[in-house]
Amino acid sequence: MSEPGSRGPQRSTKGVRAKSRPADRIFLGLSTGSAASIMVILAGVALFLIIQAVPAIMADWQTNPDLTSGPTGGYANFWTYVGPLIWGTLFASAIALVVGAPIAIGIALFISHYAPRRLAGILGYLVDLLAAVPSIVFGLWGIIVIRPFLLPLSDWLNTYLGWIPLFGGQVSTTGSTILAGAVVLAVMILPIITSISREIFLQTPRLHEEAALALGATKWEMIKMAVFPYGRSGVISATLLGLGRALGETMAIALIISPAILVSVRMLTEGENSQTIAANIALNFPIATTLQREALIGTGLLLFVISLAVNMVARIIAGRAGKGALRKRKKMLAQLPPSDPSTVLAVDDVLARKSPAVHTEGADDPEPEIDREEREGKDA
Amino acid sequence: MSATISPSRQPSGRIANSLTSGQLPRFIEWYMLAGSLALSAVILLLMGFNVAGWLVLAAVIYLIGLGILSSAVENRRKATDRVVRGLVTVAFLLALAPLISTLITVVANGIGSINWDFVTQTSQSVFDPDTLEVTTKVGAWQAIVGTLIITGIAALISIPIGILTSIYLVEYAQPKHWMARTVTFLVDVMTGIPSIVAGLFAFSLFSLIVGPKAFSGFSASIALSVLMIPIVVRSCEEMLRLVPMDLREASYALGVSKFSTITKIVLPTAIAGIVTGVMLAIARVIGETAPIFMAASFTDNFNANPFDGPMQTLPVMAYTGYKFPGQDIAASNASAWGAALLLVILVVILNLIARVVAKVFAPKGSR
């Protein structure tokens, strides 16, 4: 059903040419033009950013009066300005990913394999609601809830684990740390990682899961043996998409952390928070002069390139996932005795088609127990 | 299986046999949960009570306790299984906490500043000649109008382009055609454009056309369109692919032209899904702050002309109220929360409309 809808009609018009009406041709032109406009828009984004950024990148940062004062003052050239910003962007996103990705994958597992089947849909919707909350609201929430919430934890980490560079330095008293910003980022990337991972986990062939359970695996062992290997590349690509989201997020960071343009790994300090590209643009754009603005656009161009690269890698991995899984399956089938593959394949496909929601019964369900007792009775 | 066993051999009631001997009782997880909540409460009552600490400590006690108990009575594999089950559940509850906390925070902080005046008046400073005092009146009317105008124009641009592109991808292009593949890939890539980059793009575009200080509502609409088009394309494409081939083929068999087939058969069948997708896309971009802030800047003045001068919007009002407050910081913050609450209300309304449309217009019968 979900096959691309173009093949049938195309074939039918090839043999007998229908009379071409003007409305048809105009509509074809319009829709093709719209599709082409996507390419134009993306090219335009890159082009206009480059046009605006080049003067600032080429300018002499040490002598140009426009650049030696204000937010861009004191840098040898564009690259010494943007370097720490790139570090800050990657650092904040990495913390967000370390905090958020395991939780997101846990949620996806909970919804796909642990939650009661009837509740799973509603629970999934609740997590998707997180994606609907505007980023500015998360930013404000971070200021008045997350900042004070993390203060005791920061103190504790600094006191007992302060010898690790991450937690070292003078601990912040207001909570405007990169840790607080990253925690809010983590909340914001939860829904995207969760929803993709959930779909992948649900697609695990039921036969694999039941085979693992039949061998006596506990539920967790079944997930390790059947669900994770099947969904690995999907989860990796989901995580990368989450990373792409975190890289470009502006408001949470701009509102929460008190930034400095420097390379620092400290997460708990007041003045040593590495600023991110997006937040730096948002903070300095209103007060910048023309050339400074162009410098900010230059940093934006780099952000564009980085997040484009991350997204492309994610899409390519996701695309490979389909092909790779197919190839692996073919290889596995080739190793089976010749009579098996067709039946395995057929059963697998039928199951996949019949029950999109793959669920296994809980280990504490009464049925397996009865089965076991029946079998014992038989033996006796 | 069960049919081969006669009912008389079915065991009745609990029997103590080797199968259940090495196992924890059925509802041990609930007992453990209650126990760890109580223990954690007692410990915290001695040290000073707070709800977050109570729940966190209870979760830790629960996981450790269950792990030790299960590995003592059962075995290590079962213990791991039980601990993972607990961990996964904790992860889910952890995700619900920010959702609930955010909504409560926004409502609690915003409800105070929302009243009829706030919604219908514009912000302005009033100079009282007698006392020489400047009092600022806070209102969100200019931001509400700006949000609706900017999002409306963005929707007017994105919806036709998005729907037509998805029609091209589903109805016209051969799946292996280079253009279809490129467009599909680019749409995927476009969903990952950072929102602030979209704002910079619009600003660059208009500063080349209009000159510096090129802030306008229309420019912000262009920025939002860049973010909105891929969302619309993806959701419409999915909906169009759900329309059964049989319907198209039946239409072609009657000699109906392709244009009429698409507009009279395919689109009406998919309309519920398309409207839902469009509503959700609007809800997504209406809360974008960074691109509007770049392209339309901010102002306290009422401006309903999208082609001239800065325009205020709700998300930007919430941002500037906190980051660039006026003289009365408390009032600025209060108005920021008011704007945030209005924004959340708008998003909730759009989501509700999307759900209602999906319910009401869903095609009857099976797809």
TrEMBL record, chain A:
<feature type="transmembrane region" description="Helical">
    <location>
        <begin position="166"/>
        <end position="193"/>
    </location>
</feature>
<dbReference type="GO" id="GO:0005886">
    <property type="term" value="C:plasma membrane"/>
</dbReference>
<feature type="transmembrane region" description="Helical">
    <location>
        <begin position="246"/>
        <end position="265"/>
    </location>
</feature>
<dbReference type="InterPro" id="IPR000515">
    <property type="entry name" value="MetI-like"/>
</dbReference>
<keyword id="KW-1003">Cell membrane</keyword>
<dbReference type="Pfam" id="PF00528">
    <property type="entry name" value="BPD_transp_1"/>
</dbReference>
<dbReference type="InterPro" id="IPR051124">
    <property type="entry name" value="Phosphate_Transport_Permease"/>
</dbReference>
<keyword id="KW-0592">Phosphate transport</keyword>
<comment type="similarity">
    <text>Belongs to the binding-protein-dependent transport system permease family. CysTW subfamily.</text>
</comment>
<keyword id="KW-1133">Transmembrane helix</keyword>
<keyword id="KW-0472">Membrane</keyword>
<feature type="domain" description="ABC transmembrane type-1">
    <location>
        <begin position="86"/>
        <end position="314"/>
    </location>
</feature>
<feature type="transmembrane region" description="Helical">
    <location>
        <begin position="26"/>
        <end position="51"/>
    </location>
</feature>
<keyword id="KW-0813">Transport</keyword>
<feature type="transmembrane region" description="Helical">
    <location>
        <begin position="85"/>
        <end position="111"/>
    </location>
</feature>
<protein>
    <recommendedName>
        <fullName>Phosphate transport system permease protein</fullName>
    </recommendedName>
</protein>
<dbReference type="InterPro" id="IPR011864">
    <property type="entry name" value="Phosphate_PstC"/>
</dbReference>
<comment type="function">
    <text>Part of the binding-protein-dependent transport system for phosphate; probably responsible for the translocation of the substrate across the membrane.</text>
</comment>
<dbReference type="GO" id="GO:0005315">
    <property type="term" value="F:phosphate transmembrane transporter activity"/>
</dbReference>
<dbReference type="GO" id="GO:0006817">
    <property type="term" value="P:phosphate ion transport"/>
</dbReference>
<dbReference type="InterPro" id="IPR035906">
    <property type="entry name" value="MetI-like_sf"/>
</dbReference>
<keyword id="KW-0812">Transmembrane</keyword>
From TrEMBL, chain B:
<dbReference type="Pfam" id="PF00528">
    <property type="entry name" value="BPD_transp_1"/>
</dbReference>
<keyword id="KW-0812">Transmembrane</keyword>
<comment type="function">
    <text>Part of the binding-protein-dependent transport system for phosphate; probably responsible for the translocation of the substrate across the membrane.</text>
</comment>
<feature type="transmembrane region" description="Helical">
    <location>
        <begin position="334"/>
        <end position="358"/>
    </location>
</feature>
<keyword id="KW-0592">Phosphate transport</keyword>
<dbReference type="GO" id="GO:0005315">
    <property type="term" value="F:phosphate transmembrane transporter activity"/>
</dbReference>
<protein>
    <recommendedName>
        <fullName>Phosphate transport system permease protein PstA</fullName>
    </recommendedName>
</protein>
<dbReference type="GO" id="GO:0005886">
    <property type="term" value="C:plasma membrane"/>
</dbReference>
<feature type="transmembrane region" description="Helical">
    <location>
        <begin position="265"/>
        <end position="286"/>
    </location>
</feature>
<feature type="transmembrane region" description="Helical">
    <location>
        <begin position="215"/>
        <end position="233"/>
    </location>
</feature>
<comment type="similarity">
    <text>Belongs to the binding-protein-dependent transport system permease family. CysTW subfamily.</text>
</comment>
<dbReference type="InterPro" id="IPR035906">
    <property type="entry name" value="MetI-like_sf"/>
</dbReference>
<dbReference type="InterPro" id="IPR051408">
    <property type="entry name" value="Phosphate_transprt_permease"/>
</dbReference>
<dbReference type="GO" id="GO:0035435">
    <property type="term" value="P:phosphate ion transmembrane transport"/>
</dbReference>
<dbReference type="InterPro" id="IPR000515">
    <property type="entry name" value="MetI-like"/>
</dbReference>
<feature type="transmembrane region" description="Helical">
    <location>
        <begin position="140"/>
        <end position="170"/>
    </location>
</feature>
<dbReference type="InterPro" id="IPR005672">
    <property type="entry name" value="Phosphate_PstA"/>
</dbReference>
<keyword id="KW-1003">Cell membrane</keyword>
<feature type="domain" description="ABC transmembrane type-1">
    <location>
        <begin position="144"/>
        <end position="354"/>
    </location>
</feature>
<feature type="transmembrane region" description="Helical">
    <location>
        <begin position="86"/>
        <end position="108"/>
    </location>
</feature>
<keyword id="KW-1133">Transmembrane helix</keyword>
<feature type="transmembrane region" description="Helical">
    <location>
        <begin position="182"/>
        <end position="209"/>
    </location>
</feature>
